[in-house]
């Protein structure tokens, strides 16, 4: 079960992917909310952070 996370006005979720959806960059806020370290995200498909109820 996932929990709701309320963001403040200064939180910016930033990620960059290539044309195939592979993560090239993610900022600290994005990593924190996603629950991964940056090293765990770089090179992985962006879909790893998609909630199971969200459409592809």
Describe this structure in words.
The chain has 56 residues and is an alpha+beta fold. It is built from 2 helices and 2 strands. Strands 1-2 form a two-stranded antiparallel ribbon. Strand 1 and strand 2 form a beta hairpin. The relative contact order is 0.20.
Feature tags:
56 residues, alpha+beta, two-stranded antiparallel ribbon, 2 helices, 2 strands, 20% helix
Summarize it.
Helix content is 20%, strand content 12%.
Architecture blueprint of SSEs:
Elements: E1 15-17, E2 23-26, H1 28-34, H2 38-41
Antiparallel strand pairs: 1-2
**How many strands, what sense, and barrel or not for the largest sheet?**
2 strands, antiparallel
Binned, the helix content reads: 10-25%
How confident is the prediction overall: mean pLDDT? Answer: 90
Gap from first CA to last CA = 20 Å
Q: Runs with pLDDT <50, length 5+?
A: none
Number of β-strand runs: 2
Cα shape: globular
Lateral strand order in the biggest sheet: 1-2
Topology as a string of helices (H) and strands (E): EEHH
Q: Which band does the percent of strand residues land in?
A: 5-15%
Gyration radius, to the nearest Å?
12 Å
Number of helices: 2
Structural class: alpha+beta
């Amino acid at each position: 079960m996932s929990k709701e996370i309320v963001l403040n006005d200064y939180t910016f979720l930033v990620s960059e992917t290539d044309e195939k959806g592979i993560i090239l960059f993610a900022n600290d806020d994005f990593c924190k909310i996603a629950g991964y370290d940056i090293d765990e995200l770089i090179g992985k498909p962006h879909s790893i952070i998609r909630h199971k109820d969200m459409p592809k």
